[in-house]
């Protein structure tokens, strides 16, 4: 009898929504329990829980671009509304909205990076498919 080797299904479906949600929570897109990031923005080479390789990611400037886009679309209308409704002093307005923009940016940046890595993992981009 000839031994036959059955290839594992490396192209099994990877659902996008759970991978995005796990990435948003800064968790491994595969298992959802291991931390994806080491520090503030540095992605680990592999998940310490399931061993999934994460070094393939190519997030580059995407998370920063999305952060600027989201913060701008939230804070610009809020700035206009606050100015027209309350007419605060310019220094007060600048101080409050500067702190708000920085705080929102610092909150969003690692979460958007995690979501972007999760999307790349789910879509098998940049080596996450196992073939590269």
Short description:
The protein is mainly alpha-helical.
Structural domains: how many? 1
Q: What share of the residues does DSSP label as strand, in percent?
A: under 5%
Helix percentage = 40-55%
Shape descriptor reads elongated
Number of distinct beta strands: 2
Class derived from helix and strand content: mainly alpha
Number of helical stretches of at least 4 residues? 3
Radius of gyration: 20 Å
Run of helices and strands: HEEHH
Distance between the termini: 33 Å
* Weakly predicted, low-confidence segments: 3-9
Largest sheet: 2 strands, antiparallel
Fold and architecture overview:
This protein has 132 residues and is mainly alpha-helical. The chain has one domain (16-122). Helix content is 51%, strand content 3%. It has three helices and two strands; from the N terminus they run H-E-E-H-H. It has helices at residues 16-24, 62-86, 90-122; strands at residues 37-38, 42-43. The protein has a two-stranded antiparallel sheet. Helix 2 (62-86) packs antiparallel against helix 3 (90-122). The radius of gyration is 20 Å and the shape is elongated. It starts with 15 loop residues before the first helix and ends in a 10-residue tail after the last helix.
Spell out the key features of this protein.
single chain, 132 residues, mainly alpha, 3 helices, disordered N terminus
């Amino acid at each position: 009898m000839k031994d036959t080797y059955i290839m594992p299904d490396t192209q099994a479906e990877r659902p996008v929504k759970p991978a995005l949600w796990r990435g948003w929570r800064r968790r491994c897109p595969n298992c959802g329990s291991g931390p994806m990031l080491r520090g503030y923005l540095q992605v680990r080479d592999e998940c310490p829980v399931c061993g999934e390789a994460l070094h393939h990611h190519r997030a580059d400037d995407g998370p920063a671009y999305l952060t600027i886009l989201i913060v701008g679309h939230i804070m610009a209308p809020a700035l206009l509304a606050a100015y027209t409704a309350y007419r605060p002093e310019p220094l007060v307005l600048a101080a409050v909205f500067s702190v708000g923009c920085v705080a929102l940016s610092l909150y969003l940046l690692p979460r958007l990076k995690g979501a972007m890595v999760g999307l790349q993992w789910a879509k098998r981009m940049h080596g996450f498919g196992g073939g590269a």
